[in-house]
Amino acid sequence: MELNHTNRQINVTRNSLFEQGYLDEQFTQLEDLQDDVNPNFVEEIVTLFFADSMRLIHNAETALENYPLDFCKLDDYMHQFMGSSSSIGAKKVKNECTQFQECCKVRNADGCTRAFQRVKQEHATLKRKLQTYFQV
Predict the structure, then answer these.
(1) Which of 8, 10, 36, 126 would suit a FRET pair with 64, their CA atoms being 20 to 30 Å apart?
(2) Helix (H/G/I), strand (E/B), else coil: 39
(3) pTM for the full predicted model
(4) In this predicted model, which residue has the larger pLDDT, 73 or 7?
(5) What 3-state DSSP class applies to 36?
(6) What span, in angstroms and rounded, lies between the C-alpha atoms of 23 and 42?
């Protein structure tokens, strides 16, 4: 009975991440790679993503503090961040990275700053939600 309740709770939590648009089909593909030999594969990949993304966030924050802004460098950081986000299926984070890149293309410093805040917000929200999911 307890196992059924736990499985149901896991499914509800997982499904809500998709329904709310936080994850896309790439996450499902990662789950398909998980097996009995490596039962924590997805969690390990997500942990690596969050470790690497903190480095990219730090690099972007540093670049945003330097004037004049180096839009090419900022775009490179967001390109890396977007690629990492795509690889785990972090849909909302990826979308915000795209918006940031659009601001870089038109050299909109204020837009970059606002977009970066949204990237960080979606990143933090996803991290919190996935931590909850993996704890269940």
Answers:
(1) 126
(2) coil
(3) 0.93
(4) 73
(5) coil
(6) 13
